[in-house]
Every structure is written in structure tokens, then in C-alpha cells.
Amino acid sequence: MDKFDxxxxxxxxxxxxxxxxxxxxxxxxxxxTAVILTHGAGGDMNFRHLVSLAHALASEGFLCLRFTCKGxxxxxxxxxxxxxxDYLKSLQRFTIKHIFVGGRSMxxxxxxxxxxKLSDESEDAVQGVICLSFPLHPPAQTHTHQQRSExxxxxxxxxxVLFVSGTEDNMCDRVxxxxxxxxxxxxxEVFWIEGSSHGLAVKGRSExxxxxxVNLQVVTWMKEQGA
Length: 227
Fold this sequence. Notes:
Pfam families: Abhydrolase_11 (PF20408). InterPro entries: AB_hydrolase_fold, KANL3/Tex30_Abhydrolase, NSL3/Tex30. The protein is an alpha/beta fold. It has one domain (4-224): Alpha/Beta hydrolase fold, catalytic domain (Rossmann fold). The protein has 7 helices and 8 strands. It has an 8-stranded mixed β-sheet, with helices on both faces. Strand 5 (98-104), helix 3 and strand 6 (128-132) form a beta-alpha-beta unit. Helix 1 (48-59) crosses helix 7 (207-224) and helix 2 (74-90) packs across helix 3.
């Protein structure tokens, strides 16, 4: 693995600050693409999947800014995400030309929602969206899938989306999910993990091997988008 550095930072958010971590290649002089990541309803920015992906991204020459936002209200999460996006844009240390946004579970809902808002302001605000275990509905509550997928259907066609989902995810019925994708204007790619749960756990496989597959898929997809 190539060398990378990580700094903890505080992102201004209203009258308080969000805890965040900036992971970047060393040396960092040629960093032009950044990824913002956040966690699901539980956990924080140090959730293992996010840390693993951040380190993989930095090893491939990308900057990754992951942050913690504990609020369970989606609107609040979107405001926090916007604050992190603004913070990243303001950094003088890097010459960032492209920004991808993403998250895990509820964090991916927030990423889709903030992309929809940013795209209304500027066509090239977001280079792509990365959704890890998108929660199309709560367990056994598939009737909510239309409301949960509203922001996905509202994404413009020029913003590509990568979904990483498990075939056994009890929060993402596959038939409903594939129906949702057909309704989306955006270019979509789905990486299915066979036998994986919502937490990307696969019986008989180590967590590291699953995360290695996920990280490779994300990095490859980003490069295909011109990152």
C-alpha cells in the first residue's frame, strides 16, 4: 500500500463543529480529486468500512474527507454534508477539481440528497455519488421505498451513481431496488456482493476480503468517471 497521511480536522457547522478526518496521499502535491464520506445511523467516521475505503482512496492518489454527524434527521444530515462540502472547497492546501460524495446506509441517503441540491446550483458540483448499502426501506417495511428513493430519482443524468449492495440486505429488496434504478435519470452501476447483509457481512468470508472487493470496485469506478 502506498504511503498516506491523515489529519483530524474540525468542520464549522453553525455554532458548532463536526469531527472529520482528512486522509491524503504522501506527497500530496498532485491531488485533484476528493471524496467525502459519512456513516450510517449508528457509528461515526471511524466505522471500519469508511476507514478502509478512505485509506484505499488515499493510496490511489485521492483525498478523502470523512465526517461524523450523529443526527438521525435526514435534513439535518444534509445540512451537515453541505457544510463539509463547503469546507473542502475552501481548502487552500489542495487544488481540488473533482468531488465525489458518498456514504454508508443513511449516509448514502444524505449524499444523494445533497447532490440533488448542489446540482440545482451548479451542473458540475459533484462528479459522482457512492452509495454503500443504500437503505431503500427499513427491515420488513418495503412500502417506504418510494419516499426513500425520491432523491435518487431526482438526480440529474450527468451525475453517475455507484451502488454497493448485498444480495441478502434486508433493507434493500432487490426487485424494488432494480425498479427504482429504472426510474432514475442518472447513469447507474451496481456492484452486488453475493450473500452479503446490510452490514456487508458474508458468511464464510473475512471482513477484510469483502472490504478489499468494495474498495477496488469504488476506485475502479471513480477512474472510469475520469477521476
